[in-house]
Amino acid sequence: MDHQLKPLWGVREPKMFEYRMYKVNEAELLREAAAQRLVGEARAARRNRRHTGHEAEGRVSHLRDLRERFAHAA
Question: What is the distance between the alpha carbons of residues 71 and 69, in angstroms, rounded to a whole number?
Answer without folding.
Answer: 7
